[in-house]
Amino acid sequence: MHLKKLSLKGYKTYRDQTTIVDLHAGVNVFVGLNGSGKSNIFSAIRFALGGEGATNEQQRRALLYESQGHQAASAFVEITFDNSDGRIPVDKAEVVLRRSITIATDTYEWNGKSVQKAEVDSWLEGAGLSTKQNTYCIVERDKVVSLTSMSDGDRLDLLKEVSGAHIYDVRRGESLKVLENTRKKREHIAEVMEDIREKLERLDEDQQELKITRGLLREKVAIESVIADREKRQCKERVKELEAEASEILRELGGERAVLADISDNADKEKGELDELTKDLNETIRRLRFLAKRRENLSAEYAELSASCEGNKHTEEQNTASISVVKERLEEARAECVEVTNGLIEKREQLKALLEKQNSVRSELAALNGKREKLAAKRGSGPSYESVADRNEILKTKVDAKSKRLEEVEALLAKQMEQLERDEQEIGRLTDEIARLEAESEAHAEKNIGGDLIDAEKSIIDTQDAIREKSKEISALKEELESIVRERQELLEAVWRTAPPAVREGYTWLMESGIDGIHGLLIEHLDILEQYRLSAEVTGGLSLFNVLVDDDKVGEECLNFIREKQVEMGKPLRVTLTPLQQIEFSLTDLMGAALRHVLIPDLEIGSKLTSYKLDGVTEDGDTITWRGTMKGGFIDPGRYTRLRNWYRAEDLQLDIKRAEDRINQAEEELRQLRVTEAELVELLIELRRTAQSQLNAEAGRVRQVTEHREALSRLRNSSEMSSRLQREYNAEVEQLKLDISAIKSEMKTKKLASGALTTGETKQLEDAEASIKENAAQAAELTSQVTDLEDAIARLRARETSLLGTRIRVLQEQLKSLQFSRADVDVARMESGRRRQWLAGQLTDVEQEIALLEERQVELQETKTSKGKTVENLGAEVADLEKAILKLKESYEEKRNDIADYQERVNIADAKLDEIGAELSGSAERIEDETRKIGESTTVRELQRRLLECKAELDGHPLVNNKALEQFSQFDAQYKELLLSQEEMDSGQVAIDNLIAKLDGEKDNNIIKSFAQINEHFAATFKELVPNGSARMKLLKRDLVPEHVEMHQGREDEDEDHELGAADTVDEKYAGVSIEVTFSADQTRMRKMHELGGSQKTVVAVALLFAILRSEQPPLYLLDEVDAALDAQYREAFARLISSVTNPNPLAHRPPPPAQVICSTFRPELCSVADRGYEVSMDNRSSRIALLTDFDEYFARV
Question: Which sequence ranges are marked TM in the entry (predicted)?
Answer without folding.
Answer: none
